[in-house]
Amino acid sequence: MIGDPSDSTLSPQEPNSLQMMAPLSEEEMDELDSFLLSDAASDETMMLDCLDGYLTAIVSGPVMLKPSEWLPKVWEPTTRDESTFDTLAQADRITGLIMRHLNGIIWSLQRDPDAFEPVFDTAVYPDDPQEYSDGEMWTYGYMTGIELQTNNWNVFFDEPNSAVVLRPIYLLGAEEVTPKDEALTETPVQREELSNQIPACVAWIYRFWQPYRRAVAERSIATSFQREIPR
């Protein structure tokens, strides 16, 4: 089943600007990546792959949070180690790129969840010419996104298939796993195989929450309408 592009349960953060819905170009992705890797960002700032996973969890989950609720976690600076911008214009530019990337994920999942492509890192190892896809930091970001609103995910956790669906993400992204589970992520091949399962997991989770998001959106519209009726 292809995602319904008319699904209004996920709205762009700037609904009056079509430009804000446009996915980032390769050049813009490189620009965002360069800033997140630069000395201007704190040591705790999410890198691009982690950020992509984090935003995907927010978008594919039960409730679309406000930027004020999720954006601080991107930087997560300590008192002595804060992200700094050279100018206000630079701050607006980088924040705008992050918002557009979130909106691009919304657009991608609404258009076709099965075609969703996560932003994974790649890894190379000594004496091995192959380059492996590694979703560890992406999954860490996704798990962070779930933890941001754990209570809202309880319905998913009660679903009998949820543990199977979330397992590749959990194995790569959980902070603590059992020794038995850890043995499943030791080799580059194992990690790549788990990473390759993640797009299907995201599509399943997105579809699971779609009716719930629609119900929340309709309830919100109805509440707003009632408030506007003259008494």
The strand count comes to 2
Q: Please give the radius of gyration in angstroms.
A: 19 Å
Task: Please bin the fraction of helical residues.
Answer: 55-70%
How far is the first residue's CA from the last residue's CA? 44 Å
- Our count of helices gives 9
Please state how the strands of the largest beta sheet are arranged side by side: 1-2
Rough shape? Answer: globular
- Tally of distinct domains: 1
Relative strand content: 5-15%
SSE arrangement, N to C? HHHHEEHHHHH
Structural class label: mainly alpha
- Output mean pLDDT: 86
Low-pLDDT regions? 1-6
Q: Please describe the biggest sheet, giving its number of strands, its sense, and whether it closes into a barrel.
A: 2 strands, antiparallel
Task: Describe the protein in words.
The radius of gyration is 19 Å and the shape is globular. The protein has one domain. It has helices spanning 26-37, 48-60, 67-75, 88-111, 136-147, 154-158, 162-173, 179-182, 188-228; strands spanning 121-125, 128-134. By secondary structure, the protein is mainly alpha-helical. The chain is built from nine helices and two strands.
Which features does this protein show?
two-stranded antiparallel sheet; 2 strands; disordered N terminus
